[in-house]
Amino acid sequence: MLPNSRGHFGEFGGKYVPETLMPALAELERAYSKYKRDKNFQRELDFYLREYAGRPTPLYFAGGLSRRYGASIYLKREDLCHTGAHKINNTVGQALLAKRMGKARIIAETGAGQHGVATATVAALFGMDCHIYMGEEDIKRQASNVLRMKLLGAEVIPVSSGSRTLKDAMNEAIRDWVTNVENTFYIIGSVAGPHPYPMMVRDFQTVIGRETKEQIREKEGRDPDYIVACVGGGSNAIGIFYPFLRTKTRLIGVEAGGLGLETNKHGASLIKGSKGVLHGSFSYVLQDKYGQIREAHSISAGLDYPGVGPEHSYFKGEGLVHYDTITDDEALKAFLLLARSEGILPALESAHALAYLEKMKLKKSDITIVNLSGRGDKDLEIVNDVIGEAVE
Amino acid sequence: MSRIEERFRELRNEKRAAVIPYLTAGFPSLETSERIFRALAEAGSDIIEVGIPFSDPLADGPTIQRSSQIALSQGVTTRDVLDMIGRLRETLDTPLVVMTYYNLFYRYGLEKFAADAERAGVDGVIIPDLPPEEAGDWLKTASGKLDTIFLLAPTSTDDRIEKVALATRGFIYCVSLTGITGARDELSLVLPDFIWRVRSKTDKPLAVGFGISTPEQAKEVAEVADGVIIGSALINVINRGKTQKEQVDKAKGFVEEIRRALRS
Question: Tens place of pLDDT for every residue, chain B, 264 residues?
């Protein structure tokens, strides 16, 4: 079972954090391993996932896409979760944990705003004080999510350092945690950060894969040939991949190709990055030859991150998952395609996974599941800016 | 005995706490910082911390974040800093400690870094995001001549104090408060109790940093600790200088002031 007791997935992962946080991580580890086995905790988690978040989400047979690609295409409809993305699976879990640990103050980082909204939502639900760090650049491009967080009672703290995106929001959230660690629970939104976060977030997101496995066996009587998911930090991908690891199902993680890999404006940490430490864990990161972290680029704020969860780095090394990239333009095309062929507006993050269908050579008998990790309402302005005129 | 250990032994005999200034190399420019480091030594610094600028300094507040960004915007690299230390070492015998984040070491190559740092005359390293649990590879590589200085914080539990005290060499960097670097108006109230807790578990020298801004605060810290580390406050002082000469003079004057406060 990975990670090992020190939080390592092979050479990746670990706890590269200031000493101030080490005791807090140990406390979190103890609490998590206790409640993971606690029936009342699991019952409460199941209750909120079902009655509040809207699980299980459908596994939808996408007729339009299936005809287009000449194979069976299913969509795992995480976009139908409360708050519009898979992020709520994790925030419900971590908030319940925070409650049991007696931490009344919640902080989080957010890129696209989906994790921020999902955190603000559970903080409102459980009556917790909530502070969300968000890069100024992201605040500009995800205005509707900023408003949602504020309406839910959270304070949105603009981050003006560095590239003013997710990476810097996470730096600031960690600094807040270092300062207020005694009364504060940091809800990390992806399978990134120091141990035990990559393991804990993975466990909370694995509900996606467990449902998918049951649903596809019911509908098709077998496991799929392919599962495709987008990878920023990588939580929706790990969530759906995990129960299918080391099976015949081929797993494909799609990173942000941005303006193209040759331009250096992308978010492809696994494909184009190198090993290093960012935000408390050892993984693949985008960095220059001196070890300074580079700015990522993606049209999708949720993939605009120069790091990736350490377990993905491990999967890459072991060849358990195939990783590839999709550019901004390809993602936009897929966004429109899904809108027109299925009547669904996907998040730009998820559109990267959908776009990968174009690159696959599918046989008629193939079954492919795409994780539709979020819905596209938050992206309408960006999409309108880029292709608005063409649509009219 | 390392140069750092020797310095603390001398200080123990003198019954005086060490003055340990920190400055980000390359701030305000590589050349000015080199002059400032010399001035810090002349001002009577007992140990000098040389920061290598990193793009994502997690443990640092706005002052050191900004000094790092300014240094990086001028293209300062790890190699540049080691070369500068090599030049300083030709004339200075003050112990020099490099402080930066693990990714820069890793990317440079642990072995290569250890060798080049030793050759340049570096005496020790402080890596705030490398707790002993993750330091195995580095400690295997760092030669006998480089002291790896680990940190403790007020949140550290007794078993962690023991672990860090065992792993550290040269001294223990005690973080005065629960938080990030940066000048503060008041000293942390938990400091004496924290230092007492550490003291009861080790007889290694304890230097206290984070949040110490004034000679008065330094004096107060020196009553319980073996060394006083001042970073952000020094950078703020340098910021007030308009010319290179002013910046160097102000830095020197500030450390002299701290040194005087600690003499008595």
Answer: 899 999 999 999 999 999 999 999 999 999 999 999 999 999 999 999 999 999 999 999 999 999 999 999 999 999 999 999 999 999 999 999 999 999 999 999 999 999 999 999 999 999 999 999 999 999 999 867 899 999 999 999 999 999 999 999 999 999 999 999 999 999 999 999 999 999 999 999 999 999 999 999 999 999 999 999 999 999 999 999 999 999 999 999 999 999 999 985
What is the DSSP track for B234-257? HHHHHHT-SSHHHHHHHHHHHHHH
Contacts of B171 (CB under 8 A, 6+ apart): B4, B8, B149, B204, B205, B206, B207, B226, B227
* Contact state of B65 with A161 under an 8 Å Cβ cutoff: yes
* Minimum distance, in Å, between the CA of residue A53 and any CA atom of chain B: 34
**CA–CA separation, B23 and B57 (whole Å):** 14
Chain A environment of B54 (Cβ under 8 Å): 291-292
Residue B219 token pair: 């004096």
Mutating which of B24, B52, B54, B56 best tests the A interface, going by the most A Cβ atoms within 10 A? B56
pTM to 2 decimal places: 0.97
**Dihedral through CA A125, CA A126, CA A130, CA A132, nearest 10?**
-50
Tell me, yes or no, if B129 comes closer than 8 A to chain A by beta carbon. yes
Dist. CA B157–CA A23, nearest whole Å: 7
> The domain B3-263 belongs to what CATH superfamily?
Aldolase class I (3.20.20.70)
Find the closest chain A residue to B157 by CA distance. Answer: A23
Query: ipTM, 2 decimals?
Result: 0.97
Sole residue written with tokens 């004034």: B214
The amino acid present at A252, given as its one-letter code, is: I
Q: Name the residue of chain B whose CA is nearest to A5's CA.
A: B133
B161 min Cα distance to partner chain A (Å): 10
Q: Which two tokens mark A88?
A: 């709520």
